[in-house]
Recover the amino acids of this structure.
């Protein structure tokens, strides 16, 4: 029984648990415990789903027994099961970390509300990834976005409000564009089911309406995934959000949007249309390259480390989009791989920063001077994450770079290979600034004594830092899943 | 013990030793004993592998497969055997010397220093034993990163600036050029294994091969080919044991070792001969040799002079590889060992002088021979070895290199070797003359007052080693001939 309803449970667990939390406003610890239990349950569900589709092939789930394409269909194959695993996995690992961090950064009487919003955001993101229905994608985008606005606005710094408001404006424009695009598609095909759309589109694809739909969807989702130059909402949102929210959103929110774009480009519209009829390769590639270069350079000059990593996230989106713009199996595989590898790497880095905020209340590079002596474990985790971000061999980041570079060489773009190597040196610079400050400067004279972060913060941080090393050595799971996902996305719906 | 096991243990020893040193950080004497024991154990393990390799076998060990066809694996061939022996053997001596130096010069943070030192040796051994270019690259990067804290050890502005240039140039070249070259090699040939006769022939066109060669030669920044040599003089801000073992032996030799390895086992000498850029790199190396010697002559700071001398000597080996003749490659391999003994002695002496007198400039060394006769005597022997004068080991490597130049018909290169030798004399002998033949400027009459025993004994030992190498050249050549079965 449960086995057959796994796809539904994946979304419904967090969605139904969210309102329950409102009964626990007076018992924040209980609210935390329930959220944790739900997150781990969804993680388990996502692992079971991945295992099921890895061996048994895609699963189609008809909600309420309404057969697709008339009812809402959940569609799980290796491509989105992999994305589901990333989202659910990060939410599960971030929860033990959240308890202390949230208690300090969020007002006590709002903690249950906070977790409720978190579960809604989680459900929204999972829903986007799992659903096989275009309109449903829009709905889940809105669910996750509205919850995220609330989450970001709960940041301690008053500037969080403005950051959240900017995100709201930009995000709403993005989802509105998406909705317009979906509306056009519906107008021309009379269906909202993605597989059905893929089947019906070729007949009408040479119309202006379909091209307009494509443009609206591409721009709308690009706003959500912070493709350069539509990334302006991201740095502030990540900087001023509570630590735990930054960890979660940076690892998942943009990744899901990227997945949706991949789905639309490759499976719904088809490679031939997106990259043949329309020159998306030539549109995306320059944006990706600029998106890698400029934010990386901007990152060097940030005085706040959290903000620096936010810009680095924009650059990492560039890497993923670049792999995707080659329109080759290898490039797509590199993109899928980086969804995973960057999620764990960046989450580890933001968690280490969260631990530092917990102790010194700041992530300014000046305030972090000499911190490595007092918080050796936290900073060591930061260094490991940083090495993976740079792409040093035997870290997860290297595996991505390797595939991405091979994809560039395979497509004959060797200057891009040179460019990629050069930009990873920029990452060396911005990570090294932090390392040098933390390890080789003295603590400021007036700084109060600092203790190492508590184990509840350290353990999840180290879990992810170690994961970014382990997945750089034992690559069977991510590389295998990414290869399967790439094949599935390129193949379209069966 | 099986050679496979010995390889694994040799690699594991420095890591285990590092943990022990961290564990006993509070008990300096115990910690320092651990370091010496670690070095000795590692050397013993490396020795275990030697008979097999001498017999012509290539014992190997695979750790894990990263991606299909791409694994972290080790295989010991003659050149790697030699490099491993030199690096691990000289670590024992350096460990003793480091104890004397770090205490004598009152440096801080001993444990951190020794721990990163052990990691550096671990990665040097990984480079020596690497079975494929990917493994070599991984350890090459670990070596760059693990030596950064050693260079920045003093923590002052100068040390941090030097360390930044050091890491920037080494990582910049290795990620910018070397990794690109490795990727190209992999995508063109489908393998990165070191193979007798090379892997390029018939798979990579000569045009692409020529570009690949440039990418490799400049990607191996540790070989200090001009204009990417600046990191080496900058690294001299490090305490002297680092300059001695790492920046005269392990790190820089890892660079030229990689050059030889890439030339012999990836390109293959025959293929190398047909590339246009081989000659270019040869001329760049010749230029580096002469230019660095000229710069060395103008340095008053002893360690800076030795550093530029190293830059020059490294190019001997690069040039040897680019001559693309077997005898020159063997000469290059021999030079790894010979120069190691000579240069480590010179650096030990520079450190001993600093510990005993706080002097760092050559112009301050007048009459120093009366105060430190052992040190300055060893300095003379080390200098003779680097120059390549009999009866020191350095003679034989230069001999083979010149034979190689003759073999490939590059008469001009013979002249370059000879001019460079003269320049060596011109910058290495004056300090000795000052020390022994001039009266002390400060009117010192206190008699013999050497640095601590733990400084003087190692440098005497390595100076004698440089002498002994004169007689060991035969077996050494025998070992290296195994490179070309």
């Amino acid at each position: 029984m449960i086995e057959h309803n796994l796809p539904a449970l994946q979304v419904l667990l967090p969605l139904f648990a969210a309102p329950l939390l409102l009964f626990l406003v007076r018992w924040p610890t209980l609210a935390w415990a329930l959220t944790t239990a739900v997150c781990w349950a969804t993680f388990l569900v996502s692992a079971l789903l991945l295992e099921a589709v890895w061996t048994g092939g895609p699963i189609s789930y008809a909600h309420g027994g309404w057969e697709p394409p008339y009812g809402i269909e959940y569609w799980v194959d290796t491509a989105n099961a992999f994305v589901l695993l990333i989202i659910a996995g990060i939410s599960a690992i971030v929860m033990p970390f959240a308890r202390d961090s949230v208690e300090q950064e969020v007002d006590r009487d709002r903690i249950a509300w906070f977790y409720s919003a978190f579960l809604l955001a989680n459900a929204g993101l999972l829903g986007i990834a799992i659903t096989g229905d275009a309109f449903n994608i829009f709905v889940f985008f809105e669910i996750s976005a509205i919850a995220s606005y609330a989450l970001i606005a709960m940041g301690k710094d008053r500037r969080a409000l403005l950051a959240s408001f900017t995100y709201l404006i930009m995000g709403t424009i993005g989802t509105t564009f998406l909705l317009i695009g979906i509306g056009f598609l519906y107008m021309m095909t009379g269906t909202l089911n993605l597989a059905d759309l893929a089947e019906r589109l070729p007949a009408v694809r040479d119309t202006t309406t379909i091209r307009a739909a494509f443009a609206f969807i591409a721009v709308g989702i690009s706003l959500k995934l912070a493709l350069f130059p539509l990334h302006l909402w991201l740095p502030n949102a990540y900087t001023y959000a509570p630590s735990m929210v930054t960890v979660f959103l940076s690892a998942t929110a943009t990744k899901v949007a990227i997945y949706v774009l991949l789905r639309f480009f490759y499976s719904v519209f088809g490679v031939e249309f997106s990259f043949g009829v329309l020159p998306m390769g030539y549109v995306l590639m320059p944006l990706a390259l600029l998106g890698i270069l400029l934010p990386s350079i901007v990152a060097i000059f940030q005085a706040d480390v959290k903000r620096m990593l936010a810009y680095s996230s924009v650059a990492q989106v560039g890497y993923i989009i670049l792999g995707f713009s080659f329109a080759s199996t290898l490039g797509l595989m590199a993109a899928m791989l980086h969804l995973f590898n960057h999620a764990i790497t960046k989450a580890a880095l933001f968690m280490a920063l969260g631990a530092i905020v917990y102790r010194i209340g700041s992530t300014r590079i000046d305030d972090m001077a000499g911190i490595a002596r007092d918080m050796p474990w936290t900073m060591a985790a930061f260094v490991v994450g940083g090495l993976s971000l740079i792409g040093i061999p035997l870290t997860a980041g290297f595996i991505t770079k390797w595939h991405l570079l091979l994809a560039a060489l395979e497509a004959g773009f060797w200057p891009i290979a040179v460019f990629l190597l050069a930009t990873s040196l920029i990452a060396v610079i911005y990570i090294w600034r932090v390392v040098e400050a933390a390890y080789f400067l003295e603590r400021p004279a007036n700084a109060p004594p600092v203790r190492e972060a508590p184990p509840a913060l350290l353990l999840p941080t180290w879990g992810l830092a170690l994961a970014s090393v382990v997945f750089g050595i034992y690559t069977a799971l991510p590389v295998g899943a990414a290869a399967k996902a790439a094949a599935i996305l390129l193949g379209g719906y069966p | 013990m099986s050679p496979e096991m010995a390889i694994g243990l040799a690699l594991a020893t420095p890591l285990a030793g590092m943990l022990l040193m961290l564990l006993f950080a509070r008990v300096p004497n115990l910690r320092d004993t651990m370091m010496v024991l670690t070095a000795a154990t590692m050397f013993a393990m490396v020795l275990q592998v030697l008979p097999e390799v001498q017999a012509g076998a290539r014992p190997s060990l695979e750790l894990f497969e990263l991606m299909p066809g791409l694994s972290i694996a080790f295989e010991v061939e003659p050149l790697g055997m030699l490099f491993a022996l030199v690096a691990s053997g000289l670590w024992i001596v350096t460990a003793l010397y480091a104890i004397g130096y770090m205490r004598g010069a009152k440096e801080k943070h001993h444990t951190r220093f020794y721990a990163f030192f052990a990691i550096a040796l671990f990665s040097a051994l990984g480079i020596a034993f690497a079975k494929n270019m990917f493994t070599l690259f991984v350890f090459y990067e670990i070596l760059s990163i693990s030596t950064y804290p050693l260079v920045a050890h003093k923590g002052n502005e100068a040390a941090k600036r030097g360390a930044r240039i050091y890491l920037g140039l080494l990582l910049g070249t290795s990620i910018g050029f070397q990794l690109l070259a490795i990727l190209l090699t992999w995508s063109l040939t489908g393998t990165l294994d070191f193979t007798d006769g090379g892997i390029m022939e018939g798979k990579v066109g000569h045009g692409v091969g020529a570009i690949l060669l440039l990418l490799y030669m400049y990607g191996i920044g540790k070989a200090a080919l001009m204009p990417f040599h600046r990191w080496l003089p900058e690294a001299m801000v490090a305490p002297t044991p680092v300059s001695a073992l790492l920046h005269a032996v392990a790190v820089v030799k890892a660079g030229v070792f990689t050059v030889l390895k890439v030339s012999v086992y990836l390109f293959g000498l025959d293929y190398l001969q047909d590339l246009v850029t081989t000659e270019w790199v040869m001329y760049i190396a010749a230029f580096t040799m002469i230019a660095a010697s000229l710069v060395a002559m103008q340095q008053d700071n002893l360690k800076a002079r030795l550093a530029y001398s190293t830059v020059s000597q490294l190019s001997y080996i690069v040039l040897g590889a680019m001559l693309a003749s077997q005898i020159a490659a063997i000469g290059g391999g021999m030079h790894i060992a010979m120069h190691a003994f000579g240069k480590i002695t010179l650096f030990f002496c520079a450190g001993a002088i600093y510990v005993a007198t706080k002097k760092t400039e050559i112009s301050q060394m007048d009459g120093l021979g009366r105060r430190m006769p052992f040190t300055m005597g060893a300095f003379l022997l080390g200098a003779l070895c680097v120059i390549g004068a009999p009866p020191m080991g350095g003679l034989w490597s230069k001999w083979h290199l010149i034979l190689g130049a003759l073999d490939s018909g590059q008469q001009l290169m013979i002249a370059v070797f000879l001019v460079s030798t003269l320049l060596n004399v011109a910058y290495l002998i004056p300090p000795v003359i000052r020390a022994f033949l001039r009266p002390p400027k400060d009117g010192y009459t206190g008699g013999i007052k050497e640095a601590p025993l733990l400084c003087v004994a190692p440098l005497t030992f390595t100076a004698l080693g440089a002498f002994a190498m004169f007689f060991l050249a035969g077996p050494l050549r025998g070992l290296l001939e195994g490179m070309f079965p």
Notes: Residues 329-360 of chain A form the longest helix (32 residues). Chain A touches chain B at residues 392-394, 399, 402, 405-406, 409-410, 414, 417-418, 421-422, 424-425, 428, 432, 436, 439-440, 473-475, 479 (CB under 8 Å). The longest strand of chain A covers residues 59-62. The mean pLDDT of chain A is 88.
